[in-house]
């Protein structure tokens, strides 16, 4: 008989392998394997849901919405704060689950658990401050006001690279606003989502208010979630290509949509920058989660006058990165699949064929099929795949520039507009770049910036809407105008 606690959790009940619908754990006609990317071993066989179970989850969320929306903001806040506390208390176990199915180092996984929980705490407070308006009247026979009402059922599709935080960033504001949610996590990382449901139930989130449906037929599950008229809002984190398809499906019922899509982040180092600070920032934003984040540095632009010293110091830091299983004390774990590894080979081969140089790394790692060496390349140009595509892996691709106008133009020359980084000591340049870089998030002199108190999101083809900050809850409300005649 298989172990019910294969990861040796302190609380074995957090390890669930069935779908969570209307407060019940549901089996399915078949199961699929969840693999540890570091070892290739199967860690769980998870119930493989179909479109009928997705429909069941939507119906349960629709029924639960009728009651959940009636709770006061203070009542919803109290329940969410309990969920936050339970996640924080169980951070070690939740991190073990994440590392096993996703691969990131355990320290990073713990960090993600606390980061994701912070959104629950934030929106538990924010929902008590979301006021309507009293509008000054132009006619004494009328009074006018606005009322914020929850939109209804929210469909969420979340990715494998942040299997906990991408759920809480969506579910927390939805539940805080009075909505109910149906979540379809990535098939690669369903265990983190299911563990969150265990704690949500303990916190008192009622049956049907939160549902998780996972399966390998992403198209069928996604179509059900995006076309069912009972779903009022749809929110997605993933690639721009898939986001466009899902938006088109949502159009059939005119849903509200939020999209957090792909990126092609520039990282600009000016000649007056603190080079050590810039190198540290580059390492932080390039190699976190093995380079598999939407806001990872993608194109490194270094002023030609400091390119040699910057590259030398960056090489030293890259070669100091330790690689291994996430359960070991390492700084970088595996990529999520052998397909991702093959993509690193493709990008490097194209770069070398077109004149780029591999300074360090550049090959598959001896540790196993999902591991890749942290890599530094120089001589990269805008026309290479490394300069046009989202790398999503541990390749630092360095280019040079000569002037501010040149690098701003090159940085903006992309369909994406998620995050941009720059390092300079010139305060005038700080303000100029903040205004001229065409990105939803512009970050100066640091590589770490995301916070629950600030809006996260992009422009152009990097998405619609914001997560975090007071802006992050707005899309989960409808604003109702109320006019009262007095005579």
TrEMBL record:
The active site is at residue 260. It is an enzyme of class 1 (oxidoreductase). InterPro entries: Ald_DH/histidinol_DH, Ald_DH_C, Ald_DH_CS_CYS, Ald_DH_CS_GLU, Ald_DH_N, Aldehyde_DH_dom, Aldehyde_DH_Superfamily, Succ_semiAld_DH. It holds the Pfam family Aldedh. Keywords: Oxidoreductase. PROSITE patterns: ALDEHYDE_DEHYDR_CYS (PS00070), ALDEHYDE_DEHYDR_GLU (PS00687). Its EC number is 1.2.1.79. One of its GO terms (molecular function) is succinate-semialdehyde dehydrogenase (NADP+) activity. It comes from the Bacteria. Residues 25-480 form the Aldehyde dehydrogenase domain. Belongs to the aldehyde dehydrogenase family. This is Succinate-semialdehyde dehydrogenase [NADP(+)] GabD. It comes from Sinobacterium norvegicum. The lineage of its organism: Bacteria, Pseudomonadati, Pseudomonadota, Gammaproteobacteria, Cellvibrionales.
């Amino acid at each position: 008989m298989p172990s019910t606690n294969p990861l040796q959790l302190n609380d074995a009940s957090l390890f669930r392998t069935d779908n969570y619908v209307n407060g019940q754990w549901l089996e399915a006609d078949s199961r699929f394997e969840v693999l540890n990317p570091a070892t290739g071993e199967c860690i769980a066989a998870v119930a493989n849901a179909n479109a009928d179970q997705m429909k069941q989850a939507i119906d349960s969320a629709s029924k639960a919405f009728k009651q959940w929306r009636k709770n006061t903001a203070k009542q919803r806040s109290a329940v969410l704060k309990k969920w936050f506390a339970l996640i924080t208390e169980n951070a070690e176990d939740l991190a073990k689950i994440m590392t096993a199915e996703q691969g990131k180092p355990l320290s990073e996984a713990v960090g993600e658990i606390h980061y994701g929980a912070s959104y629950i705490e934030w929106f538990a407070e924010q929902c008590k401050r979301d006021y309507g308006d009293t509008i000054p009247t132009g006619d004494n026979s009328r009074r006018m006001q606005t009322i914020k009402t929850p939109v209804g059922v929210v469909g969420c599709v979340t990715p494998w690279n942040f299997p906990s935080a991408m759920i809480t960033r969506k579910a927390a504001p939805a539940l805080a606003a009075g909505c109910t949610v149906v979540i379809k996590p990535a098939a690669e990382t369903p265990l983190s989502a299911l563990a969150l449901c265990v704690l949500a139930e303990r916190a008192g989130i009622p049956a049907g208010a939160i549902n998780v449906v996972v399966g390998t037929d992403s198209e069928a599950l996604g179509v059900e979630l995006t076309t069912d008229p009972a779903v009022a809002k749809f929110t997605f984190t993933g690639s721009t290509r898939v986001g466009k398809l899902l938006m088109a499906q949502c159009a059939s019922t005119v849903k509200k949509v939020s999209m957090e899509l792909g990126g092609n982040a520039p990282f600009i180092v000016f000649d007056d920058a603190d080079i050590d600070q810039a190198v540290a920032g580059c390492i932080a934003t390039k190699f976190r989660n093995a380079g598999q984040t939407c806001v990872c540095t993608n194109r490194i632009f270094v002023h030609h006058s400091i390119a040699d010293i910057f590259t030398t110091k960056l090489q030293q830091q890259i070669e100091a990165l330790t690689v291994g299983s996430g359960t070991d004390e390492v700084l970088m774990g595996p990529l999520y699949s052998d397909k991702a590894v093959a993509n690193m080979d493709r990008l490097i081969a194209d770069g070398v064929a077109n004149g780029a140089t591999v300074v360090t790394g550049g090959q598959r790692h001896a540790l196993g099929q999902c591991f890749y060496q942290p890599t530094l390349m120089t001589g990269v140009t805008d026309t290479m795949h490394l300069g046009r595509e989202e790398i999503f892996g541990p390749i630092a691709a360095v280019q040079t520039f000569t002037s501010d106008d040149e690098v701003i133009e090159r940085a903006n020359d992309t369909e994406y507009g998620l995050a941009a980084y720059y390092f300079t000591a010139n305060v005038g340049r700080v303000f100029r770049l903040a205004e001229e870089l065409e990105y939803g998030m512009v970050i100066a002199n640091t590589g770490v910036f995301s916070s629950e108190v600030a809006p996260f999101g992009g422009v152009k083809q990097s998405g619609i809407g914001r997560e975090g900050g007071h802006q992050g809850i707005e899309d989960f409300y409808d604003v109702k105008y109320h006019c009262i005649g007095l005579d």
